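Example 234, ligand flavin-adenine dinucleotide.
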Amino acid sequence: MTPHQPLARLLAGKLVGPAPEGCQRDFGRLHCRQPQAVVFPAGVADVQETVRYALAGGLAVVARGNGCSSNGQSLTDSLQLDTAALDRIELLGAATVRVEPGVRWGTLHRWLHEHGLALPVVTSNEHATVGGTLSVGGFGPTSPFVGSVVDQVTALDVVTGDGALVHATADGPHRELFRYALCGLGQVAVIVRADLRVVPAEPAVLVRRLGGDDLATVAEQVWGDERLRICRTV
Ligand SMILES: Cc1cc2nc3c(=O)[nH]c(=O)nc-3n(C[C@H](O)[C@H](O)[C@H](O)COP(=O)(O)OP(=O)(O)OC[C@H]3O[C@@H](n4cnc5c(N)ncnc54)[C@H](O)[C@@H]3O)c2cc1C
C-alpha cells in the first residue's frame, strides 16, 4: 500500500511500511478495515512520535499485537501501530521479567524456560502478544488460584494520548493509569513495557499412561515426547 503522503513526510518515511498481509482482518474475520497507514515503531520514541503526530492531525491510533482478538479491536481505517518490532526481553532480578509489548507468549515461555523460570498464568494462544493480552486481561488454567495475566504485572511504561512516556506501578506513581491501562483495550494508553512476575519453573506433574513394562521402553517414550522431557512423569 502507498503510505499516506503527509504521514510519510512527517515520519521521514522511516516508520511507515507496507501494510502486512491480513492487517485489515483479525482472528474473528467479522470485520474488515483497511488502515490508512501502518506504522512500525522500533522503540518507545517511535511510539511517542506516532502518537504526537496523530494528536496533531486528529487521527486515531490503534495498537495491534497479532490480531488474535475477534471483534475488530485491533482494526482501524486510521493509523495502525504494529508492535511486532517491540520485542525485547530482560530479567530484572530473580522474580521479574521486563518485556516489550510485541513479544509473543510462546517466545517468552521458551526464553524463560532457558532461564529456569515460568509465568504463573499461561494462556492457550502462544501467538498472542504481551501488549494485546494485557489490554484484555488474560485467563489461563491457574487463574482461579493466582488471578489473571494482568494480576502478574508489577509496573508498566505507557505512552499516553499526548505522547508522554509514563512509568506507572500498582501502588506507586500513576496507580490509576496503571489500573486503567490494564484491560484498557488500548483506549487509555499504549503499553510499551511491562514488568511481569515470574516463578521458578517447577517440574509439572503429568499423568500419562505409558505403554510397555520395561524401563527402557518407558524412557524411550519419555524422550520421544517433548512435553514429557521437561516434565516429571508419574
Ligand atoms: C486461538 C485463541 C486462543 C486464545 N486463548 C486465550 C486464553 O487461553 N486466555 C485468554 O485470556 N485469551 C485467549 N485468547 C484471546 C487473546 O488473548 C486476546 O484476543 C488477545 O487480545 C490477543 O492478543 P493480540 O496480541 O493478538 O492482540 P490484538 O488482537 O492485536 O489486540 C487486542 C487489543 O489490544 C490492544 N493492544 C494491542 N497491543 C497493545 C499495546 N501495546 N498497548 C495497548 N493496547 C494494545 C489492541 O488495540 C486491541 O484493542 C485466545 C485467542 C485465540 C485466537
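Summary: The chain has a mean pLDDT of 88.
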